[in-house]
Each structure stands twice: as C-alpha cells, then as structure tokens.
Amino acid sequence: GAPRRLRALDALLAGTSYAEMGRVATQNADAPGVLQAHNLVILSRHPIREQTQVWNDLVPAPAHRYLAADPPADAPVPVPWDRPLLHARIEVGGRSLHVLNLHLRAPLASVVPGQKAGSFAWKTTGGWAEGFYLSALKRAGQALEARLFVDRLFDTEPDALVAVTGDCNAELRETAVRLLRADDEDTGNGALAGRALIPVEGSLAEERRFTVIHAGRRVMLDHLLASRALMARFRAAEIHNEMLGDELVAYASVEASPESYHAPLVAEFELKD
Fold first, then answer.
1. Is pLDDT at 19 greater than 70 in this prediction?
2. Mean pLDDT (whole number) for 87-107
3. Strand bridging mode 95-103 / 161-167
C-alpha cells in the first residue's frame, strides 16, 4: 500500500472503480483464503477469463538433507518455494494477454533447524551458508517453474502476448532472470528466439534503471519481461524511483513505514489492432 505505488495504479486505472476491476490473488494451499503474507494480486479493467496458481506443480520441491542442523537431520526433506506464481489470462481487444506475477525468494538465508541466534543472526557460518544456498535454490527453482509455464503457453500459442512481472530479487544477468528470459545467446539456438522474453527496462537510460537502493547501491530487482509479440506493441516504460530511500538504512531507522522500498515499474502497450 505504498502511496507512490497507488498513484501509479490510479493513473493506469483512471475511470475504473475498484468494484469494476477484475482481480485475482494467490491462495493458501492448506486452507481457504489468501496467504497470511506476501500475496500476489493482479488487477485489470479488462475481463479476466482464466486464473492459475502454480506452486511446485511443474518443478517438484527438491529434497535436501540439512548438513548443519542441530540436532542432526536423519533424512532429506522437501524444500518448496515460499509462495506460488499467479497467472491471469486477460481478454483485451479480442486477444488473450497472459500475465504471470511472481515474487522470487530474497537473497536472505533460509532457516536451518537449530542454527538461528536471532531474526538476522546465525550461530555458525556453515549454518548461514547452507541457508543462503537454499534460498538461491528456491529462487532459481521457481524461476525455472515460471519458464516452463511460459513455454507451455508458447506450445499452444506461438505468438502469445506474455508479460512476466514482479520482484525477481535478481538483476538482469543473474541466474533467475536469465532462466526467465531464455535469450538466444544463452540457448545458442536462433529457432528458440520466439520464446525469449525481453526486459522493458532496456528502453530506459542506464542511470534510470533501478528499483531498489541497497547500502547505497542502485539495483534493478523488479522486472517486466515481455514476449516478442507483446514487445512489438510496447510504447513506453517508467520507473518511479525519484523518492526511493535506501532500504537497508530505512529498515533500521523507520518503524512501520507506509512506503515501499521498491520503486514501481510501469509499462505501456498498445494492444488494439
């Protein structure tokens, strides 16, 4: 509910009341209703014809035997993703627009039994390292699942209008985003170029390409990746990072801040033929 996010949303949905919007959200896998935290939501002033939640459906949760657990682990346990992917098929101008919303695991170490000394403190370096490895595994694994889901869309609709968007917790050349993009320079096969996803941020000046400030460093962790068919209809992109604060400083000094420490990324497409 950050004010600048709402201002950007208001501009996009001008003339449409909340009651008139189509909306879908991620659901708890174990009980009815939304998740207690970190829900994904898609709003649309165009009709939402289909929704899909993907949570270790295409990529099974990998099995891991904790190495630094205290007491020692007896057997491997599954390591599922922290939250699902959310897909909506939106009808726009007689065509389907596929939006895949995601929030990949942050580069903060996952819990290892018996190894935490506090919320952000660890008892051993080995325990922290194992937790950090598990977070990287979750982030890459869910990016793989998103890529496989997009490939299924292309299997049935080669010229699909696809937007994969959200907090990837990774920069453009990091593993998770490379998995999502599937550039032909990575696959080495020009025949697969139609399945690649293109980051809209490439249209912006380099000095504007950041959505987070972390310890003084400007990083682009939030992305909107478009299929070639959708990118052909691309008109403009903006990142509202003018008032962005340093998230590391803010978390330590501001209590219950109403602001998000991720800047909104807004893209405009002309979908009418």
1. no
2. 96
3. parallel
CA nearest neighbour of 152 among 71, 235, 73, 59: 59
pLDDT tier, 18 (very low <50, low <70, confident <90, very high otherwise): low
Q: 161 is written with which tokens?
A: 């209008």
In order, the DSSP letters of 215-229 are TTEEE--EEEEEEHH
Nearest to 212 by CA among 253, 174, 250, 241: 241
Contact 209, 201 (CB under 8 A): yes
- Which is nearest to 39 in space by CA: 79, 1, 96? 1
> How many of the other CB atoms lie within 10 Å of CB of 200?
24
Query: What's the token pair of residue 172?
Result: 């453009």
Rounded-to-integer distance, Cα 153 and Cα 195, Å:
10
Task: Give me the amino acid identity at 188.
Answer: G
CA gap 128, 100 in Å, rounded: 32
Question: How far, in Å, are 81, 111, 144 from residue 60 at the CA level?
Answer: 10, 20, 11
Mean pLDDT of the chain: 91
Cβ proximity of 98 and 162 under 8 Å = yes
Per-residue tokens: 169: 């917790």
> What does the DSSP 8-state code read for residue 249?
H
Please answer whether residues 252 and 261 qualify as being in contact, where contact means their C-beta atoms are separated by less than 8 angstroms: no
